[in-house]
Amino acid sequence: GGGSSGYFGGWSIITVILALLGAAGGLLVALSIKYDDAILKTLATTGAIILSSLLDNLLLDGPLNLAMILAG
User: Fold this and answer.
1) Which long-range contacts (CB under 8 A, 24 or more apart) does 46-55 make?
2) What angle do CA 58, 49, 41 make, to 5 degrees?
3) Distance from CA of residue 44 to its chain's centroid?
4) d(CA 67, CA 57)
5) What's the CA gap between 19 and 6, in Å, rounded?
């Protein structure tokens, strides 16, 4: 137990905030590990689209206009 001052006796507001931030950080790490395959797949697909657009423009003189650059 926490003695006569309770379970959180002696905790300041800064201590509570730091404990909550640490817990939130742990949850974010757990979520990123859980969904890392989907995140990596999305990043790989995006990189492939950008790379193929650039190579198409450089090697085959394909179109590369402002709308394509902003959408990429």
Assistant:
1) none
2) 150
3) 15
4) 14
5) 17
At 69, list the tokens.
């650059």
Residues 52, 62: Cα–Cα separation, whole Å = 10
Asked if the model's pLDDT at residue 58 lies above 80, the reply is yes
Residue closest to 49 by CA, chosen among 22, 28, 71: 71
Query: For residue 23, what pLDDT band results from cuts at 50, 70 and 90?
Result: very high
Question: Does residue 20 carry a pLDDT above 70?
Answer: yes
Residue 63 has pLDDT above 90, yes or no: no
